[in-house]
């Protein structure tokens, strides 16, 4: 990493990760600066290829364009069929962390080694119906596990509460140096559920960027999550 960016995953604690996908793309620099100044911990980058998911979002060029204007930790979520092939382009564009889906590979350890060899931290993601057992062999080898609480591909979907059981299981199994991220349908009515189950890294798109005051919305989400953590003893 460069430009004074801090490593954003090793220490325990609640993290807010606004999703760039929900931002106003005509004002990306301003929108990123706004949430950064407002206390965002990570910037979540949803990359879609139109193959693994039925949508296309953005690629390394967009990330490279905003990288010089932000010191946020860039958290790339590759919803693509060939993460090992394209990981280098995203790291070179400025991503500090790369998460890939277990559903796209039979050799997750090789993908992890490829990403880590590029100097990035590594995450592995499971879809709503993918069991924790699918990542059993590499659970100890990643810096973060991402649980999808909607089906990947589009924003604004309804939160799938059934995934909370997996979140709770993973929370019990991950080490203090590993993060547990949740993505999909996170908003005022659901972030407390996710935090109470043990998630510590909260991806929110429309619940932040879709509000009139994104910074106030983000802080309200953080407060709701913090209160849920305190009430469940997950601090």
Notes on the protein architecture:
The chain is of the alpha/beta class and 235 residues long. It has a single domain, classed as TIM Barrel. It has eight helices and eight strands; from the N terminus they run βαβαβαβαββαβαβαα. The chain has an eight-stranded parallel sheet with strand order 1-8-7-6-5-4-3-2. α2 runs parallel beside α3. The model has no long low-confidence stretch (mean pLDDT 92).
SS content category = alpha/beta
Lateral arrangement of strands in the main beta sheet: 1-8-7-6-5-4-3-2
Shape: globular
Provide the low-confidence segments as ranges: none
Name the CATH architecture. Alpha-Beta Barrel
CATH class: Alpha Beta
- CATH homologous superfamily? Aldolase class I
Short descriptors:
globular; TIM Barrel; alpha/beta; 235 residues; eight-stranded parallel β-sheet
Summarize the structure.
The protein is an alpha/beta fold.
Please give the structural blueprint.
Blueprint: E1 15-18, H1 28-37, E2 42-48, H2 60-66, E3 73-79, H3 83-93, E4 97-101, H4 108-117, E5 121-126, E6 144-148, H5 164-173, E7 179-183, H6 191-197, E8 201-204, H7 206-209, H8 214-232
Helix pairs in contact: 2-3, 3-4, 6-8
């Amino acid at each position: 990493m460069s430009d004074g960016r801090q490593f954003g995953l090793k220490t325990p604690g609640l993290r807010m990760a606004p999703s760039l996908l929900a931002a106003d793309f005509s004002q990306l620099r301003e929108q990123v600066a706004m949430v950064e100044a407002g206390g965002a911990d990570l910037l979540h980058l949803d990359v879609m290829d139109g193959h693994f998911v039925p949508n296309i979002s953005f690629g390394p060029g967009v990330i490279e364009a905003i990288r010089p204007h932000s010191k946020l930790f860039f958290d790339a979520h590759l919803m693509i069929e060939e993460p090992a092939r394209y990981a280098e382009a995203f790291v070179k564009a400025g991503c500090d962390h790369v998460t890939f889906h277990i559903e796209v590979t039979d050799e997750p350890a090789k993908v992890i080694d490829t990403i880590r060899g590029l100097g990035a931290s590594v995450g592995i993601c499971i879809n709503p119906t993918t069991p924790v057992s699918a990542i059993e062999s590499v659970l100890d080898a990643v810096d973060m596990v991402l649980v999808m609480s909607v089906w990947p591909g589009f924003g604004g979907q309804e939160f799938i509460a059934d995934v909370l059981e997996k979140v709770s299981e993973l929370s019990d199994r991950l080490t203090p140096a590993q993060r547990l991220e949740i993505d999909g349908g996170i908003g005022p009515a659901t972030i407390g559920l996710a935090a109470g189950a043990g998630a510590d890294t909260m991806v929110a798109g429309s619940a932040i960027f879709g509000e009139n005051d994104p910074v106030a919305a983000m802080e309200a989400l953080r407060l709701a999550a913090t209160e849920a953590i305190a009430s469940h003893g997950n601090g």
